[in-house]
């Protein structure tokens, strides 16, 4: 009986260990915890007069021969205002290379109020030799932020992207593979 109870306990702990990463990822995406922006499908119903400076950061992971930069370093938006900003990615090599962007928002408490409608993140981007591409992100800062007294002093949010090299480039036209180069996508 004790051996069976111990076996069940071990099995539950192993299952919990495997479930922890997907559960934590879901939790962060749902709540904005850890600076994870929210994903939106439509613009908010209202735009408020409260201004917010949004800064843009662009980074490249080791091994990716790209230059990656925002069109602007920062902009001032109003809460609820839908904004499109572009980043430029340039392949500096003489061969086809690919990358995928990860993102976060700082301060991390602002992640729950930073909503992206469209983004290039988590979509494989493949650039030909010396190719340059404009990558768009469409976002807004949720007007609900005004109701959070912990955010009364918040006046700057930083959206940061880092492109990491793809381990393998997707095969052209392969079913179930990444979207075609330049494709958008939510996330």
Query: Going by CATH, what is the homologous superfamily of the largest domain?
Result: Ctag/Cox11
User: Would you state the CATH class of the largest domain?
Assistant: Mainly Beta
% residues in beta strands: 35-45%
How many strand units?
Answer: 10
Structural class of the secondary elements? Answer: alpha+beta
SSE inventory with pairings:
Layout: H1 2-31, E1 38-39, E2 51-60, E3 66-70, E4 74-78, E5 83-91, E6 97-106, E7 114-118, E8 125-127, E9 132-141, E10 156-165
Parallel strand pairs: 1-7, 2-10
Antiparallel strand pairs: 2-4, 3-5, 5-9, 6-8, 6-10, 7-9
Question: How would you describe the overall organization of this protein?
Answer:
With 187 residues, the chain is an alpha+beta fold. It is built from one helix and ten strands; from the N terminus they run H-E-E-E-E-E-E-E-E-E-E. The radius of gyration is 20 Å and the shape is flat.
